[in-house]
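Lab notebook, bench 4. The sequencing result for the construct came back, and we need a structural model before the next group meeting so we can plan mutations. Quick request posted to the team channel:

Model the 3D structure of this chain.
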Amino acid sequence: MTRIRPARLGLALLVTFAATAAAAHTGEGVTGGLISGFTHPILGWDHVIAMVAVGLWGAFLGMPAIWILPVVFPLVMAFGGALGVAGVPIPAVETGIALSGVVLGILIALAVRAPIWVAAVIVGAFAIFHGHAHGTELPAAANPYAYAVGFVIGTGVLHLAGIALGFLTKLPWGAYAVRAAGVVIAALGGAFLAGIA
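Done. Here's the predicted structure in token form:
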């Protein structure tokens, strides 16, 4: 049985929840390369909740979902990004991004144990919206390839933070904490959906 080190868990939580609100899809601040790509998902609460939720749900589902979901998300996100770069329209992108937090949060809060292929389809569907939103911004970036690499790395960090939170289920009270985190994620996604966050 793996033992969770409180200091490491605390650091992961601090990094995850210390992010400040950012206007994620205005196109502003997307003029840099690797660093701005890396910080973009970490400083945007809409990304933080969805990407942490992917790792958290994967950890809750256990093997092999703990690694499959955090791999599916950036791969499909890259596809959505390519659609955005190509100018292929996808309706209701911002709504899809907000719904990702709502739906994933509810799945975690209700402790839904979906088959791995269903979980991958759900995660992949939401990843298209996240990727498309940023694909439409990439052509204006000074170095779009570096930005994309930074964005994927930032996404991975958030997935790992979710996985770290998921290890709370190993503790006697951990399942309740994980489900409570799902409620918070769903509530924040609902706030984005209602336009109040």
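The chain has eight helices and no strands.
Will bring this to the meeting.
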